[in-house]
User: Which sequence fits this backbone?
């Protein structure tokens, strides 16, 4: 990797060198980090599923999409910052790298409090709208109240990761994730097994681990990058840059918000089949995320790679990166099918009741054979988003879930039974792939970066 001077020797440029090596070198630490992230989430479910019971496992699972809904805006802003920072780095404009980083931090600090309050007020009504069974509701509400109270740690954690990704640095994020994961595992066992805090224990553990990792990340980043040596409590805010971040990140935030509402709609359908089906669905989601993690890592690498090369005017390299990312992702999907024969054993780690395992296998058998479709969709969306076009990926993703997945899930469940309802995922992915694929072929995304940096 090339290194830029100007007091920013550690910023990794992806504008020169072999695309395959660059993308893999960037994606591998992210993949390891995603494993830590998934272990982080899995430990919560494994601990409550085994030491508290299937009701607690269902409660943690049903609360996740609501939490994701409320945090989607900041995750989207983090993605906007990633793209803008990566393009400024490609153009070697380090003053605007600093301004972008300061601005996104100010937005995060000022915006986290009202979002936390709103989440705490409305968590119970939302759970009721999701058809949450009465035996699951108290634990789900308790879990969500604690998570929302400590939401600033999660926001800061994600903003750090977004800035670092724009820098082409995935190794530092891995360090922060490792710290959070180890702390979460230790605190989960302490609070649940030793102190008997049940669902509240895993929620408190999550908040403490994320907050500590966020604060450590601030200190670490300021020492490593000269361009980040600013006081985040100074509340520097550049309206022009924030508008660019909004333009790039708001569509992703809206996309994830509406996507999480779609997940809640799916969760509501699942909740109607009782605690066993809910617990199996939650456990299977944790497992199939292992197949999704490499795809996500490669697509994140492709976004940064595309952003830097678009900023440098290297369209030829963007095309090579697209082909590389697609082939690697498809290969990973085919290898991930080994999860299917191991499914019953892996589901048993969460809860050993036959009803839970059967429900989890319904999900895995319906979804995983079609992951190739998702991998191609993610890579094309990553390229288009990295070039500065956020609207098309948003439309593609929302159509995938709201026009494809949700209607077909309810239709399949009503006419064929719950054993087939998760085939609706493939229906949605086909629709999303058609939308993004057609736009990609038109080539209109190729001029987005130049327009963005000139404004």
Assistant:
């Amino acid at each position: 990797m090339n290194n830029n001077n100007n007091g920013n020797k550690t910023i990794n440029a992806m504008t020169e060198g072999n695309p395959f090596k660059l993308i893999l070198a960037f994606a591998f630490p992210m993949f390891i980090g995603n494993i830590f992230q998934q272990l982080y989430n899995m430990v919560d479910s494994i601990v409550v599923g085994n030491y508290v019971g299937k009701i607690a496992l269902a409660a943690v699972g049903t609360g996740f999409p609501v939490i994701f809904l409320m945090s989607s805006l900041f995750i989207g802003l983090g993605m906007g910052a990633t793209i803008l920072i990566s393009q400024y780095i490609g153009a070697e404009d380090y003053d605007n790298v600093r301004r972008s980083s300061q601005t996104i931090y100010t937005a995060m600090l000022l915006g986290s409090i009202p979002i936390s309050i709103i989440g705490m007020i409305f968590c119970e009504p939302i759970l009721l709208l999701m058809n949450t069974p009465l035996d699951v509701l108290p634990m789900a509400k308790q879990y969500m109240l604690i998570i929302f109270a400590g939401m600033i740690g999660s926001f800061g954690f994600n903003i750090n990761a977004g800035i670092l990704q724009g820098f082409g640095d995935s190794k530092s994020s891995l360090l922060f994730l490792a710290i959070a994961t180890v702390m979460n595992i230790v605190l989960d066992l302490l609070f649940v097994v030793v102190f008997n805090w049940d669902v509240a224990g895993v929620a408190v553990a999550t908040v403490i681990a994320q907050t500590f990792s966020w604060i450590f990340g601030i200190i670490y980043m300021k020492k490593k990058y000269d361009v980040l040596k600013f006081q985040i409590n100074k509340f520097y805010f550049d309206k022009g840059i924030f508008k660019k971040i909004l333009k790039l990140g708001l569509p992703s935030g809206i996309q994830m918000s509406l996507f999480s509402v779609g997940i809640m709609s799916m969760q509501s359908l699942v909740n109607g089949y009782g605690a066993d089906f809910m617990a199996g669905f939650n456990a299977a989601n944790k497992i199939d995320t292992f197949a999704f993690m490499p795809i996500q890592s490669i697509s994140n690498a492709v976004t940064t790679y595309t952003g830097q090369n678009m900023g440098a005017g290297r369209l030829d390299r963007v095309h090579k990166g697209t082909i590389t990312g697609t082939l690697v992702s498809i290969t990973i999907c085919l290898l991930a099918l080994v999860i299917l024969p191991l499914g019953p054993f892996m589901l048993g780690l969460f809860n050993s009741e036959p009803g839970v395992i059967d429900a989890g296998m319904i999900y895995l058998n319906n979804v995983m054979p079609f992951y190739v479709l998702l991998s191609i969709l993610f890579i094309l969306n990553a390229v288009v988003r990295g070039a500065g076009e956020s609207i098309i990926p948003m439309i593609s993703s929302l159509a995938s879930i709201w026009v494809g997945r949700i209607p077909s899930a309810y239709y399949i469940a009503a006419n064929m039974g719950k054993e087939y309802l998760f085939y609706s995922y493939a229906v949605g992915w086909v629709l999303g792939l058609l939308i993004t694929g057609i736009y990609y072929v038109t080539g209109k995304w190729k001029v987005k970066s130049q327009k963005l940096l000139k404004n």
